Amino acid sequence: MISVQHLEQLAETVEQLEASDQTVGPANSAGGAVARHETSRLLQRLQCLLFPREHPYSECAGSPSRVARLELLGVVIWDLAHQIHHVTAHDCANAATACQELTRALDSATRLSQQLPAIQTTLWSDAQATFDGDPAARDVSEIIATYPGFYATMVYRLAHTLFQAGVPLLPRIMTELAHSQTGIDIHPGATIGSSFFIDHGTGVVIGETCLIGDRVTLYQGVTLGALNFPHDQDGQIIRGQKRHPTIGDDVVIYSGATILGGDTVIGQGSVVGGNVWLTQSIPAYSKVTNQPTIEMRARIRS
Questions:
Q1: How many CB atoms lie within 10 A of CB 139?
Q2: Cα-Cα end-to-end distance for the chain
Q3: pTM of the entire structure?
């Protein structure tokens, strides 16, 4: 049994944590948070809604297809509104009338649902680009059902829509869930065109201010990152500036390549070879390689 002394010690620990929350915690935090498993369930439902053939939804099993999808859409809208409401600063507990922030959260969730057909169309182009670029793929359904690069791209496109709508925190939770599952780190603020293909994917990093054109292919271990972080006169990082590269249409970047800097532009149709390090722009239709040095070893006679 837990003694009274132990309970008092536990209560003292909680008091110290609460005091630390107030004095040491970030002063610029707004809103609350949602449990990661709730956002994971939301992503699963959205995946089922977009691609029911590859990801059947058991919650509505037994209903006609359109009715099941309609029912699932209603669940998704309310679930998303609930999570947007949680991460947005509000004072609904003290509201004398209906909570306006909850109403706005429901509006935001409804607007996202209206964009799902356009998101799905772009994702179909991503899946087709993956099929066209990977001879190991048997069909597009296999890609949608199993490929980590496609999953990370799907989550990014959903999170990016919320990010553009100004929803705090939730887009990052979504992309970090995909990051933990796939090893692919895409910031929801990045801008990525259609027919996007990440092959294998582990270790890919795409920063917040990246601009990526159409029909771009990335292989595992590619970093599209920042070269440095400018600081203000108080030594604080200046936020909101372009820090990450721009990748033109029809570019291929092979495994292990690192491209850094907000002023770095990779011209249309270029190929960047494996393990290349780039901090400067290259013109359209360039080919950059990292040539290995080959030395002959002396033979050892036995």
A1: 10
A2: 74
A3: 0.87
Phi-psi region of 127 (alpha: psi -120 to 50; beta: other; left: phi over 0): alpha
Give the residue among 255, 243, 156, 252 at the shortest CA–CA distance from 197.
252
Rounded Cα distance, 133 and 136, in Å: 9
Describe the strand order of the beta sheet including 246-247 as a list of residue ranges. 191-192, 211-212, 246-247, 265-266
Distance CA 248, CA 259 (A): 13
Residue with structure tokens 């837990």? 2
Distance of CA 80 to the CA centre of its chain: 17
Q: Specify whether the CB–CB gap between 160 and 189 falls below 8 A.
A: yes
Local confidence pLDDT in tens for the 302 residues of the chain: 567 677 778 778 878 887 877 666 554 455 667 788 999 999 999 999 999 889 887 655 555 578 888 888 999 999 999 999 888 876 666 555 557 788 888 999 999 999 999 999 999 999 999 999 999 999 999 999 999 999 999 999 999 999 999 999 999 999 999 999 999 999 999 999 999 999 999 999 999 999 999 999 999 999 999 998 878 888 888 888 999 999 999 999 999 999 999 999 999 999 999 999 999 999 999 999 988 888 888 777 66
- Distance between alpha carbon 49 and the CA centroid of its chain, in Å? 19
Structure tokens at 84: 């947007």
Element (H, E) at 260: strand 258-260
Residue 147 to residue 130: CA distance in whole angstroms: 9
Compute how many other C-beta atoms are within 10 angstroms of the C-beta atom of residue 241.
Answer: 11
Q: Are 202 and 220 in contact (CB under 8 A)?
A: yes
Structure tokens given for 34: 């949602």
Q: Give the number of other CB atoms < 10 A from CB of residue 234.
A: 5
Residues shown for the chain: 302
Q: How many alpha carbons lie under 13 Å from residue 140 in its C-beta half-sphere?
A: 11
